[in-house]
Amino acid sequence: MKITVLGSGAWGTALTYALSKKEDNDLLIYGRNPAEVDDINKNHKNTKYFEDVILPSSIKATTDPSFALKGRDILLLATPSSQINNIVELIANNCDTSPLIINVIKGFDPNTGEGIAFLIEKALKGKVDIKGVVSLVGPSFAHDVIHDELTAICAVSEDKGAARLVQELFSSPSFRVYVQTDAIGAEIGAGMKNIIAIASGTLEGLGYHDNTRSALITRGLAEITRFGLAKGAHASTFLGLTGVGDLTLTCSSHRSRNYTLGLEIGKENLAAPVLERNTKTVEGVLAAKTIHFEAKRIGVEVPITDAVYEVLYEGKTPSKVVKQLMVRALKEE
Questions:
Q1: Domain covering 2-181: architecture
Q2: I want to staple 135 with a disulfide (CB 3.0 to 4.6 A). Which of 65, 156, 168, 317 is the partner?
Q3: Res 262: pLDDT
Q4: Which DSSP helix (H) or strand (E) runs through 77?
């Protein structure tokens, strides 16, 4: 398979490494940073993200979108969600095949609240005759994948055949892939878990501990499920890898960007100075805004998301917002 990975960051690099275990794969990483591309080609490393990892010599990289996109069977999209429109435009202008798209970008269309996979499919319709979009979703950090830590994840598509192809493409003794067909639910779980993770980190920054985190994860799962069901997802999806699995990992680890951003916000008891100095892509920040307004539009209660939105966008202090959440009207679980 001729596969191009669009994105030379940590996740794109780690997934290219996972794909390199199948010797017949022709692997190319497209990146905009010449230093990263040169590092991959000359040193077989992506030192910025994985200083101790030597990549297989079969992995090549380029900054040339035409070279990266022409004659390829599969395109794997691994850029920040803020770059999705640019990536779609690159594909439309340079792709000359009918590729299968694998999406690992998490987030939502800020205009419609739909997941990124649906946005990609709509944006390319009539421009590129793609074979479909399969999302790769589940509890996984790039660091663990590239160090062969045991990982389980889902290939998600309503087209089960396409999902099975991706399953076969990635599966190895250290990387187990399950097929999932609830594309709506999986993308909602993958996107909303980042919002709950910001809340989880914030609570630790405020000085709360295990009881609080356990309650947050549980009620966060209920919130994600409630929103997901209103959008047409299946309840069982949120009990699997793309639901509770992804949520638990992201809400419990200091390697999560969303969690660590929340941690700093909690320590400051204010979001503005933390957001001002932040230089990393933290997908939960935009997701909180999108879901806050989409939930209002469809009439679904999302109190944790609303609280995160108020802290991020309205300047409210986290300590006061937490107290407001705890004195909400009492109810049955």
A1: 3-Layer(aba) Sandwich (3.40)
A2: 156
A3: 97
A4: strand 74-77
